Amino acid sequence: MASPTASLSAETEALLQHECKTIRKDLLHQPGPDFLDRCFVPGNRTPQVLRSLGQLYNHGRLGGTGYLSILPVDQGIEHTAGSAFGPNPMYFDPENIIRLAVEGGCNAVATTFGTFGTVARKYAHKIPFLVKINHNELLTYPNKFDQIMFGSVKEAWNLGATAVGATIYFGSEESGRQLQEVSEAFALAHELGLATVLWCYTRNNAFKTADKDFHVSADLTGQANHLGVTIQADIIKQKLPENNGGFSTLKFGKTFPAMYDQLASDNPIDLTRYQVANCYMGRIGLINSGGESKGATDQADAVRTAIINKRAGGQGLISGRKAFQRPFAEGVHLLNAIQDVYLDPAITLA
User: What is the C-alpha to C-alpha distance for residues 321 and 307, in angstroms, rounded to an integer?
Assistant: First the structure.
């Protein structure tokens, strides 16, 4: 295994030396091979759900470590298929999505009913399926920002799903309905023995000001995480935080001074640690998204994000565009580079 820290920027090197002085690491339920035994067995998840979680955590190159590497490809709906697959048209064929996850050593592949519906019988026994059950489609004009159900939990179960995933746009006008829909869907998923993964995204035009985009503030995303674990999501997906002070600047919600001067700092590891804390101090795993593809810097950016997530106490990355918007072999290499961060014992909690 090549060292993931062989050629890093000075900023990323500094992240490896950072010591978190906000929320102490000994307060966290840390990732590890026994994570399910420590954090899920004492709770209310059924043996069938525990088995599904075991399939997720014990598959791929990170199997048995307590960390996750997931390939998500729902951008054909969320961003339009042309914009998502135009950089690499081979992915208009959904089988290549599954192949990339398999050959990339991922714990699971997260994608759409349509993708799994075309190749489920060929791959259901080769890699865990995470079926995304709701989406925001962009063909409505003018565009609206609302997650709607594209299929049922039972349909995902019939496709051989190990888990279902959904998005809630916290802060949007439709978030109340989405919260009810997803909560009911996750309850049914647990009845059927499926694990649940929630994309806890914030969405409101007022969250973006002339100075900052608070859609990625630690306080707003942290609260979204807290709401997500409350409806019993088994894994939380969240964007990497880039700033803080959304509640205090926009002047809504409830705050406490320690949220900003003691429980977080400007360091991205500390900001992400606050997200982990809102996942019941790590009892529910936080996976951060890999973000858009920017080309030549993608691998370095992905390794940086993985270092931040791991050192903060998170459980992995769910990275898509950086992997599939490039030649197949390069996509495999990038996924492996992310996984190498979590396999490197020298990269520890801050």
Answer: 19
Q: Is 224 exposed, middle or buried (0-12, 13-18, 19+ CB in 10 A)?
A: buried
**Closest residue by Cα to residue 222 from 280, 178, 166, 307:** 280
Alpha-carbon 315 to chain mean position: 9
3-class SS of residue 337: helix
| CA angle (26, 30, 34) in 5-degree steps | 130
Beta-carbon contacts of 260 under 8 Å, excluding residues fewer than 6 positions away, are 219, 244, 245, 248
Q: Which residues are catalytic?
A: 237
- pLDDT tens, position by position, 161-179: 999 999 999 999 999 999 9
Model pTM greater than 0.70? yes
Give the bridge partners for 170, in sequence order: 202
CA distance 132 to 147: 11
What residue type is assigned to position 261 of the chain? D
Q: Quick one: angle between helices 328-343 and 298-312, nearest 10?
A: 30
DSSP states along 51-90: HHHHHHHTSSTTTTTT-EEEEEE-HIIIIIHHHHHTTSGG
Buried-exposed string 65-74: b where 16+ CB fall within 10 A, e elsewhere? bbbbbbbbbb
Sign of CA dihedral 30, 35, 38, 39: positive
Maximum distance among all Cα pairs of the chain, rounded to whole angstroms: 54
The answer to whether 131 and 163 have CB atoms below 8 angstroms apart is yes
Confidence of residue 11 (pLDDT cuts 50, 70, 90): confident
Identify the H or E element spanning 263. none
Q: What is the DSSP letter of 317?
A: E
Going by pLDDT thresholds of 50, 70 and 90, the confidence category of residue 1 is low
- Chain length of the chain: 350
pLDDT digits (tens, 9 = 90+) for 261-317: 999 999 999 999 999 999 999 999 999 999 999 999 999 999 999 999 999 999 999
Six-digit token pair at 23? 């929320």
Tell me, what DSSP letter sits at residue 240? P
Residue 6: per-residue pLDDT:
65
Contact of 175 with 168, CB cutoff 8 Å? yes
